[in-house]
Amino acid sequence: MAERKYAKYIITENIRTAQPPAEMMKRIEEQRKAGNYTEGTALFNLNDKIVPGAFYVDCHWIWKTHGKQGIQTEIAHTHDFDEVLGFFGSSRENPRKLNGEIEFWLEDEQYIIDYSCLIFVPRGLKHLPLVFRRIDSPVFFFTAGNGTVYTRSSGNE
């Protein structure tokens, strides 16, 4: 069978072209040792290195949190591109309810997210930290930006 012309645009595997920063992994491991961690699955990653010309997208399922304290996965940072973050609850009866609680920062304003939402972060706007305070049922989480790969202009670890 001949190879299909557009098959390269359909992503069905999680291809990681870069590992998370060492400092991020250290922070997550320290929280895990203290009994505070999330169960999750990195589902898909897309960027210009995977499909030339693609913008960056990263998709995760967050299944559950463990421990008495929130789990901080990210520090405050900025980008040279616009970014969208999405958090979606999985309740069939009320998909707009997150069934969890996430702490999210835009500049110096703290937001407690307990509903499904999209968050637009204009280029240059400092955002995060991101803290998963509680996940009672699975939450689908994604980030996407109009840059070809994920980079930071500040807050590099």
CATH topology: Jelly Rolls
Helix content: under 10%
Number of strands: 9
Mean pLDDT: 92
Number of domains: 1
Order of H and E elements = HEEEEEEEEE
CATH superfamily: Jelly Rolls
CATH architecture: Sandwich
The coarse silhouette is: globular
Strand content: 35-45%
In the sheet with the most strands, the strands line up as: 1-2-9-4-7
Gap from first CA to last CA? 47 Å
How big is the Rg? 16 Å
Structural class: mainly beta
Oligomer: single chain
Please identify the top-level CATH class: Mainly Beta
Poorly predicted segments: none
Major sheet: size, sense and barrel closure? 5 strands, antiparallel
Count of alpha/pi helices = 1
Question: What key attributes describe this structure?
Answer:
Jelly Rolls; mainly beta; five-stranded antiparallel sheet; 157 residues
Gist of the model:
This protein is mainly beta and 157 residues long. It has one helix and nine strands. The chain has one helix spanning 22-33, and strands at residues 37-46, 56-66, 71-74, 83-89, 97-106, 109-115, 117-121, 127-135, 139-145.
Description:
With 157 residues, the protein is mainly beta. It has one domain (20-145): Jelly Rolls (Sandwich). It has one helix and nine strands, in the order αβββββββββ. The protein has one helix at 22-33, and strands at residues 37-46, 56-66, 71-74, 83-89, 97-106, 109-115, 117-121, 127-135, 139-145. The strands form two sheets. The protein has a five-stranded antiparallel sheet with strand order 1-2-9-4-7, with helices on one face. A four-stranded antiparallel sheet has the order 3-8-5-6. β5 and β6 form a beta hairpin. The radius of gyration is 16 Å and the shape is globular. 17% of the residues are buried. The mean pLDDT is 92.
